[in-house]
Amino acid sequence: MSVTLLQAILFFLLSLYFQSFYFACSQSFVGVNYGELADNLPPPPATAKLLQSTTIGKVRLYGTDPAIIGALANTGIEIVIGAYNGDIPRLASDPNVATQWINSNVLPYFPASKIGVITVGNEVITSGDQNLMGQLLPAMQNIQNALNAG
Questions:
Q1: What is the pLDDT of residue 85?
Q2: In the prediction, which pLDDT does 32 show?
Q3: For position 10, what pLDDT does the model report?
Q4: What is the dihedral of CA 138, 112, 108, 150, to 10 degrees?
């Protein structure tokens, strides 16, 4: 195993460890995944209104659709947004790309849209793509550094 892969796995395990402290002190909530790969989805404002009428407190997006993020503004619903697997190589190799990603996908909507978590990639570790796995941690670090700088 490469050092970078070991670092990514260690980072992941440490994240899970520290999350256990967060969740031990937090309240329970109901959340949903908001998939966007369908041909019969209601418009984002209708979805936001539906979500507000329930006890759902968190929504995970697999990307950064501006219409959805904007529709969830001022609803109090926490949003999880994510960088696509295809974004990882550029995010890993250039901190300026991470800054641009934050400037385009977070700052225009925050704090009205309650973006609480940013994911980098989806199922990268189980993908079997060694190159992508090796770039995951640097991409995450660049996103975190861009957030810290912003």
A1: 95
A2: 86
A3: 63
A4: -50
Q: φ and ψ at 115, to 5 degrees?
A: -75, 110
DSSP E strands: which ranges in the chain?
30-34, 56-61, 78-83, 114-120
The answer to whether 103 and 64 are in contact (CB under 8 A) is no
Q: Establish whether the linkage from the previous residue to 111 is cis, with ω within 30° of 0.
A: yes
- Other beta carbons within 10 angstroms of residue 38's beta carbon come to 6
Stretches in the chain below the pLDDT threshold 50: none
Q: Residue 44 to residues 72, 80, 88, 110, 130: CA-CA distances in angstroms?
A: 8, 15, 27, 17, 36
- What pLDDT, on the 0 to 100 scale, is given for residue 76? 95
Residue 56: name the closest of 81, 80, 82 by CA.
80
How does DSSP classify residue 35?
Answer: -
Q: Identify whether the C-beta of residue 98 lies closer than 8 Å to the C-beta of residue 135.
A: no
Rg (CA), the chain: 16
For residue 107, CA distances in Å to 22, 26, 70, 138 come to 25, 26, 12, 21
pLDDT of residue 21: 56
Q: How far apart are CA 31 and CA 88, in angstroms?
A: 26
